[in-house]
Amino acid sequence: MPLLNPYQVQLGLYRDHFPLLQNARNKNAIHYLDNAATTQKPEILLQATNYFYKNLNANVHRGVYQLSQEATQAYEGARSAVARFIKARNPSEIVFTSGATESLNIIANWFGHEVLDSKSEVIVTMMEHHANLIPWQQACSLSKARMVPWTPDENGNLDLNILEKLINSKTKVIAVCHVSNVLGTINPIREICALAHQYNVTVVVDGSQAVPHFPVNMEDLDCDFYCFSAHKVFGPTGLGILYGKKEQLEKVMPFRLGGEMVEIVTFESATYKPLPARLEAGTPNFAAAYAFSVIIDFLKSITYDSIYIVEQELKAKMLEILDRIGGFRILGNAEEKVPLFALIPEKMHPHDVAQVLALQNVAVRAGYQCAMPLHRYYGAENGSLRVSMAFYNNQEDLDALEEGLKKAQQMLKG
Ligand SMILES: Cc1ncc(COP(=O)(O)O)c(C=O)c1O
Questions:
Q1: Among this protein's residues, is 370 annotated catalytic?
Q2: Beta pairing partners, 203
Q3: How many independent structural domains does the chain possess?
Q4: Full-prediction pTM beyond 0.85?
Q5: For residue 152, what are the CA distances in angstroms to 35, 145, 159, 236, 394?
Q6: How far, in Å, from the CA of 224 to the mean position of ligand 1?
Q7: Could you say which residues of the chain have pLDDT below 50?
Q8: How far, in Å, from the CA of 369 to the mean position of ligand 1?
Q9: Which helix (H) or strand (E) holds 87?
Q10: Which of 243, 274, 300 is the last residue of a domain?
């Protein structure tokens, strides 16, 4: 299938590239609005994966034979492609992991074991996904450091003036998401980093919900660490990206130990290779890395500018729907947000609404969205109903959602 140009993207032709969205299920196509959980895959990802296993499959960094060399080239080529994609200064600043969760665990584990002590403080925002919360809980419990919550305002915005009051000489790290997976808020990472660095504080950014929607630039943001998962960016499962500034990443204690990350091994000890190998013990997901490099080209052909235009329209239409039908409170009304809406239904349980939508072939997520403290903070004790969109969603998806929400109101409110 030929790649698309921005004009075609805006016409909605890109949807044809996603086979699952064309599948008839119970005679109805699925209306997939759970993109924050994972995104659908374009045909080109299937082709790239197929191509790799048919033509390039051998373990990387291990063989002197041609095939292993080619597999290694494909893997390292993917690393360079990711570095260019997020504007890292050097490919060695990119570590491939199994996902954002592993990436964040690597950093928090290092902090817990080697950086924090009983006098340290760790600032974590109240809007973090459990993946950027629980590893810090453990790091603090291990080191006896103190966790300090940075809470958002009623619209879901983080206030830099509050951060300025929270930071002090004990602060060692700030853990913050680029985009909240509940509120959709786009946080001011550049400004957070500028403030943090005045106090020599490390900033760890969870970019899982940002990269599917807009370009990220490590040089510009100037964060110390940045993580995301390929499967949320139309790419393969089982692949995560951990970016770290070279001088910071070099200090990180390997979380996993084993083959291919070592230089000299005696029975009692081992010396580790330089970056990025020292943080990639064992066989990496090289096929996924290669396939993700193809997705990067796919995104380039679509362009983030086109994605932005489509998503702004989807967002506006969603607000119109909620206005029309009433009865759903939105968690998070930040000016700067991605097309993601966590809804609190009036007099209905989010799970019941999701069930009614499922009967209409509308896929959304109900629950705490792996952000239980945030739901409690906003008094959403039953969790929320999350509608999260991607650039391939269209009017039919929104119509089906609107019908489904109305049906839920008729059935459940009595
Ligand atoms: C903001 C955020 N961070 C981290 C994660 C964890 O990603 P993964 O499960 O791919 O490791 C998610 C997934 O939902 C997320 O939304």
A1: yes
A2: 174
A3: 2
A4: yes
A5: 24, 23, 7, 33, 31
A6: 19
A7: 26
A8: 10
A9: none
A10: 300
